[in-house]
C-alpha cells in the first residue's frame, strides 16, 4: 500500500486558520541595553496552572526575534478594541512601534499597556523551535486584569465580543 501525500495549499491552510477566532496580544520586552521591543500575537495560550505557564509564538523572521530570545522576561498585554491600530503597528516590520503607544514601564523597564484587558508578566522559561516560529514559554510571576473586554482576530479583521459574524 502506498500513501500519496498531497502538497498542502498554503492559501487554503491560511483561510482555514482564519476561521478560528483568536485573542490578540501585544507582547513586549526590553533588551539588555534598555530598548523596548514588541510584536502582535494571536498565538497565545495558557499552558499550565501549576506551575503557572503561558506560551506565545514568535516568527523567527521578526525584527524583535533576537531581543526576545535573549530576554529574561516578557509581558503579554491582552488587547482591547481601543488598541486595534496599535496592534496593527506591532504586527508590521520596520515600524517604530513604541512611538505613539500609551505604554507605561514596570520596575524592570518592560513596556505595559495600562488599559489592557489583562497584563501577564513572565520569566522566559524556555524557547522551543516550531517550524518558522519559536514557542516562548513563560512562567507567570504577575497577572492583573483591566476593566475593558478583549478583542478577537477573525478572518483578517478585528471582532469585538458580542459582535455578530456574517
TrEMBL record:
Superkingdom assignment: Bacteria
EC number, as in UniProt: 1.5.1.-
GO molecular function, one term: oxidoreductase activity
Record carries keyword rRNA-binding: no
Pfam families for this protein: Flavin_Reduct (PF01613)
InterPro entries to which the protein is assigned, alphabetical: Flavin_Rdtase-like_dom, NADH-dep_flavin_reductase, Split_barrel_FMN-bd
Keywords: Oxidoreductase
Top-level EC class as recorded in UniProt: oxidoreductase
Flavin reductase like domain sequence ranges: 17-160
Keyword Transport: no
Protein name: Flavin reductase ActVB
Protein species of origin: Streptomyces demainii
